[in-house]
């Protein structure tokens, strides 16, 4: 017996739209990959839900899905890149629709819940609450999204760094209130791929962050030559506090107060109050301390993994090397405020 879309969602034939939506949401919470679920099962559930929304009882066969796809990827890197660019374009359009929907609810002062996303990568749930806070559940893949009140989120954030179009790359912008990834360390929600988060008047609380560095062919066409292209993941809360987990591999952070763990490989930190609670800082980490600011390393050990070659740049142009602070006993065993 062929399994139909009602069977997949574990509901009876002819279920109402509300019953279909409720069943889908319950299964998403169980099987979504960001919650440790089965990726293939999640995709199957998502397709069943999309089919039932348009009244389609039976799922497509694999061959039918290939025929309907905008682009069927081959094995070459160029094929994969082209498909990924098309997917990022689709997701960007969806995020624009989500932004318009959330803004309309803000203007009306009403609550609402709606799904946005793509058939290939999955959907995200957006819910505007009575408190004006927007709750987002699911992985953020691409596109610009702006909201005028606080945002809380369950899920990781990435960006299509490979896309030549800036409008397709991830940028979440909160104009009033804070942005928080809920239980990000426990659930391993992270930020990568050159994603950007900007909060104008509020705080940012997230987990681990990484950027992306790739080798590309020399733009002048020189044979055997390549260059490194950097895609910085960038978080800004210039009027608030930025709290993160470990930060590595091409990241920029800018806030009034920063609370961070380990800083590893090509990280640039700008702030007035910088608190480093991790034990590792690599040689290519740069600190930019704003006027009347302070920085403190809370390493309880010897400070061995805090590189001598990391630097602190002051707003007046003065440059300090970490080795000088070690000699002054301002790093290790809890450290001292450096102003």
From TrEMBL:
Xref: SUPFAM superfamilies: Chaperone J-domain
Protein name in UniProt: J domain-containing protein
Source lineage: unclassified sequences, metagenomes, ecological metagenomes
Organism: marine metagenome
PANTHER family: DNAJ DOMAIN (PROKARYOTIC HEAT SHOCK PROTEIN)-RELATED (PTHR44240), J DOMAIN-CONTAINING PROTEIN (PTHR44240:SF10)
Matching InterPro entries: Diphthamide-biosynth_chaperone (IPR052276), DnaJ_domain (IPR001623), J_dom_sf (IPR036869)
Record-annotated J domain positions: 4-72
């Amino acid at each position: 017996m062929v399994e139909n879309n009602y069977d997949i969602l574990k509901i009876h034939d002819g279920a109402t739209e509300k019953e279909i939506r409720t069943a889908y949401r319950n299964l998403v919470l169980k099987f979504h990959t960001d919650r440790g679920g089965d990726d293939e099962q999640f995709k199957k559930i998502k397709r069943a839900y999309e089919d039932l929304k348009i009244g389609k009882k039976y799922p497509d066969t694999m061959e039918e899905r290939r025929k309907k796809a905008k682009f069927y990827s081959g094995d070459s890197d160029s094929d994969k890149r082209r498909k990924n660019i098309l997917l990022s374009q689709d997701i960007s359009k969806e995020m624009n629709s989500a932004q318009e929907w959330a803004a309309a609810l803000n203007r009306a002062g009403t609550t609402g819940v709606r799904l946005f996303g793509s058939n290939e990568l999955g959907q995200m749930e957006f819910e505007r609450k009575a408190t004006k806070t927007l709750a987002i559940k699911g992985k953020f893949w691409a596109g610009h999204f702006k909201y005028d009140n606080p945002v809380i989120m369950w899920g990781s954030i990435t960006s299509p760094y490979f896309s030549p179009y800036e409008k397709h790359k991830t940028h979440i912008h909160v104009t009033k209130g804070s942005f928080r990834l809920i239980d990000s360390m426990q659930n391993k929600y992270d930020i990568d791929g050159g994603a950007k988060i900007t909060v104008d008047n509020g705080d940012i609380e997230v987990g681990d962050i990484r950027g992306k560095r790739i080798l590309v062919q020399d733009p002048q066409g020189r044979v055997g030559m390549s260059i490194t292209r950097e895609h910085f993941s960038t978080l800004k809360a210039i009027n608030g506090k930025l709290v993160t987990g470990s930060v590595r591999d091409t990241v920029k952070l800018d806030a009034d107060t920063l609370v961070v763990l380990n800083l590893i490989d090509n990280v640039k930190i700008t702030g007035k109050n910088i608190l480093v609670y991790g034990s590792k800082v690599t040689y290519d980490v740069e600190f930019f301390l704003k006027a009347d600011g302070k920085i403190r390393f809370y390493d309880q050990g010897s400070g061995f993994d805090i590189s001598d070659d990391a630097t602190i740049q002051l707003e007046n142009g003065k440059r300090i090397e970490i080795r000088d602070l070690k000699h002054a006993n301002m790093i290790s065993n809890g450290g001292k405020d450096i102003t």
